[in-house]
Amino acid sequence: MNRLEQILDFNKKFVEEKQYEAYLTGKFPDKKMVIVTCMDTRLTELLPKALNLRNGDVKIIKNAGAIVTQPFGNIMRSILVAVYELNADEVIIIGHYECGMTGMNPERTVNKMVERGVSEQTISTIQNSGMSLMRWLRGFDNVKESVENSVNIVRNHPLLPVDVPVHGMIIHPETGQLDLVVEGYEEQKKRASLTK
Fold first, then answer.
1. Most buried by CB count within 10 Å: which residue of 35, 63, 84, 126?
2. What are the start-end ranges of the E strands in 80-144?
């Protein structure tokens, strides 16, 4: 049985035995928060447990490195949807120590693409189209700076309401210990007072 068949076989039993009932909740986050975090496998169960979150408490957006790179990219769009359509009123960016995006070498990644069958011509076409493939694949050198940068992109977004605080944290992927990088309440108060 391949992996997909294993998943489908398990799922059939999961539904038949109504195991889903333990996870029933609504689409609106009970704690009115949206979290952007890394897709690292160590955080799948650890992060919610370390933050005392249950199913339905928050919206969680995951990507490689918990990075918000573009003010009008998919991550920021998801944050804005969570705020305007799903009643989230706080944002937390949570990076983690020992992240695979730390010091990621885009040239090495491109070499792996070629080794796996992506043609040099395809790579060249993408690079000549005006897209910086190396910049797109680049990670970061320092997780704290990366979290601060992502917080700044979100906080300063022209479409984010000024009353939404944006926090930044780093989680340890083994213990779940959280280190506060940016406390967003004070900045949110400053922003709100400037608009009055």
1. 35
2. 90-96
